[in-house]
Amino acid sequence: MKHFETLTEAMEDLRSRGYTHEFAPKKDFLIEKSTETKLSGEEFNVDEFHRFEGTSDPGDEMTLYAITTNGGLKGVFVSAQGTYANEVSSELMAKFNIVDRREVNTQGSVEPIAHLPAS
């Protein structure tokens, strides 16, 4: 897996690999945005993730998850640091904790964004 410099670059690469749906969390479920299909934590898997850190503000941290549902839908979920903290159950967010899950591709996912040269 390659490291991406930007969130847009990563999303375009995932889209080219079939991750065309968009997902968002809602309390105990993940929702596919175009059809509003609700998925419990048992109905999808995280295939890979990519973390992006802001160059000047740690609050700009974003994580992009590539997801495949049990029904075969592939898509992405973008999580901004703290954005969903009050909207999502801890059980659903635990699904995105990939520390102990070997099947999730994490290679190169936490490399820092290259900083622009000082002017």
User: Assembly state here?
Assistant: single chain
Q: What would the average pLDDT be, to the nearest integer?
A: 76
Low-pLDDT regions: 108-119
Strand content: 25-35%
Structural class estimated from helices and strands = alpha+beta
Can you summarize the main beta sheet?
Answer: 6 strands, mixed
What level of helicity do the residues show? 10-25%
Strand order of the largest sheet: 3-2-1-6-5-4
Counted by DSSP, the helix tally is 2
Number of distinct beta strands:
6
Shape: globular
Span between termini: 32 Å
Question: What does this entry show, briefly?
Answer:
This is Phosphoribosylpyrophosphate synthetase. This protein has two helices and six strands. It is an alpha+beta fold and 119 residues long.
Characteristics of this structure?
alpha+beta; 2 helices; 13% helix; 119 residues; disordered C terminus
Structure description:
There is one protein chain. A hairpin with a 2-residue loop joins strand 1 (21-26) and strand 2. With 119 residues, the chain is α+β, with helices and mostly antiparallel strands. The protein is built from two helices and six strands; from the N terminus they run αββββββα. It has one domain (7-94). The longest helix has 10 residues, at 7-16. The model is unreliable at 108-119 (pLDDT under 50).
